[in-house]
User: Fold these one by one.
Assistant:
Number 1:
Amino acid sequence: MFSEFRDRIRRHWQSQALGLRLVGGYALLFILSVVVLAGLAYGLLLYFLQKPDRDFMEAQAHELAAVYRQGGAPALQETLNRGGPDERRQELLVRLADTQGQTLLLYNPDDWRPSEVRLLRTQPPPQEETWVPLGTAEDGDPLGAVVLRLSADRVLQVGMDADLREDVLESMQATFLVIALPVVLLALLGGTVLAYRALRPVRRLVDTFNAVIETGDVQTRAPAHDAQGEFAELVHLFNRMLDRIEQLVDRMRDTLDNVAHDLRTPMTRLRGRAERALHQHADDPEALRAALGDSIEAADAVLDMLRTIMEVTEAEAGTLPLRVDTEPVADLAQGVVEAYRLVADANDVTLDVHIPDDLQVTADRSRMRQVLANLIDNAVKYTPRGGHVAVRAARIDPDDGAPAVRIEVCDDGIGIPEDEQPRIWDRLYRGDQSRSEEGTGLGLSFVKAIVEAHGGEVSVESRPGDGATFCVDLPAGNGTA
């Protein structure tokens, strides 16, 4: 039953708005803190009010015990009747009893009621000395007594009615009740203010979300000038996400623009071939077959271009799936080199490989073979007859990074002008010297995107007429020594 009630309360609490829960939680915590502090203050006040009375009763008990030990009950009675220098003795109740509970002497100037005196009679005799709280009297004043063992069969009890202390405690209780309502109101007000300020960054995030959704403007950013702690990090991550979305949108827009521009030529060529075949060779099956083959070839080129553009875009966006494993560099390069060796021989280009067998990289095997294929294809394509292309690799140990492996594809071809080198990595860019060769302008942008998706870097060193060296730096595999 209790667990069901507790679960119902928890579900109801969790269904409320976060702001309301913050206000309620803060108010409850504030009120509990005030109650604990008030209880602590009440206890301390009670202790400090009791201490003087208790010290007084203990002093009187020891003084009267000394009198009894010297002169017995008659001397004790005479001392009580005579009074003393401290008028507070008139507030004491003194009772001499035996261990069986029988009263041998009773001094009661403060007129304790029989029921209150009976509280003393019910107290068991102590071994030596003890303090006994007796609760409250019929008029509400607290009662207490010091009980002292005088001898084997005699007990002295000295009690006191703390009426002044009770008045002070009652005043404190009344004061607490008076301030209870302002405390609750202050807790609710403080909780509202703190919840409003704490949730301000969240509200701004919500406003930014709504603005982006309604306007489609991904350049909108959430203000973070007054956000602190976890909310500052949340706003920062949200703005970074918008930055990433903006970059993706810009890249997608650029890609679509480039695709629309660069596909116009092959699509126009494909349509022209088909149209000529229909008008000029409508009755020639062989000519129509040849035109159909050309159209299929042109369509395949367009599909290859689209596939490469999509892979470059995915790699740049970090969404390209990679099957990363530790791979021997020599094994990766050897298969690609063998595939291009016939092409190199046909162009009278020497193609060599210089890679230690113990070098390993952490990479996707098929993707890295595509990278090497693009670099070797370019090197062979732009190297004149009698030229030389070399593929080599070595371990590098940067001062501020993890060990890596550098793969270099070097040629002694036409080279790349310095002003074109930063642009060769752009999609669909083709330099002046490369326009004479067939190509889409996507090879190097694909290489850069794939290498960076692996956490690596790619660079080029070249001068016109002195060839080019393309460098690919990849994380070293565990087995690389």
Number 2:
Amino acid sequence: MSLRLEGVKKGYPEFTIRLDLEVRPGELLTLLGPSGCGKTTSLRLVAGFLRPEAGHIRIGGQAVEGEPPHRRRIGIVFQDYALFPNLNVLDNVCFGPAVQGWERGRARTRGRELLSMVHLAGYERRRVHTLSGGERQRVALARALAPRPRLLLLDEPLSALDAKLRQSLRLEIQAVQRELAVTTVYVTHDQEEALAISDRIAVMREGRIEQLGSPEEVYRRPASLFVAGFIGQANLIPGRVLARDGRLTVLQTALGRFAAPAGGRAPAAGERRVLFFRPEAARLGRKAGNRFHGRILRREYLGSQVQAIVEAGDQRLVLSAPQGPGKEVLPAGGRVEFAVDPLACWLLPEEPASTTVG
């Protein structure tokens, strides 16, 4: 079942939400962005808890912006679980089908199937207050899916859980979503979470979608400096365009001349651009490509790799290097030379106050 937002508008004092977006049938699309950018408000517009001032919200081609939430056939998972404390686990899961008039036996069969799917078989008679946070969120997911919704909405479903539990539960959510092929909109501010589970990511900024693409696209080919800095860590070096060299654009910077593909239209000579690359794109001691050298200000051991802050001219860059037997160590205070493949770089339009390490 598809979801389409066409010219949807909702005004607030801080900014106005403006959305044009299509979620494909069976897709898991994540709304990603900082707190206060409009992610949850967008979800509430789809759910029917808020009404847009303009535009259309279509589920399966049918306009629903005038329908109340209970008529939209949408399953919702909230951050705070929103379970019924007076009901046991199975009765919580079966609540939606019961409200829709399902026959009791059919509803309970559906409930048991979903509890098994979320690894809670045998928990049917447990009271929800006896469950851990992760178990409660599994119950909430099963309850949202029980009445076979046309659309599943998840609003920061893992933010109340610890890091290890978030990692395991996000994989379970992805597996269940894939198995049931339910069209899903997932809201989070956690970049790693979005990259791990999404088919596509819509990066939001002040009520608008800054970029929509696959996890790899938004990570490796950001559409703006905001996206580059918000998702992961970004090395950003400003400069001025010199010329074109085949598929690449040559940029003159304070650190020298570097080449990279250009996002959007090919820039003309003299235009300002920012060279972008991720820390892991750097290769120590490499002689070909965009070459850098500098002094290591500090390093951080992360197990499989070492991350270092490198001072190159007046820039501070982030460099990641794999560690292990035979691997070169990055000593604090030492000099380092490295290079980045031009195809691992990307040129972006310049924005004010945007050339710091993200």
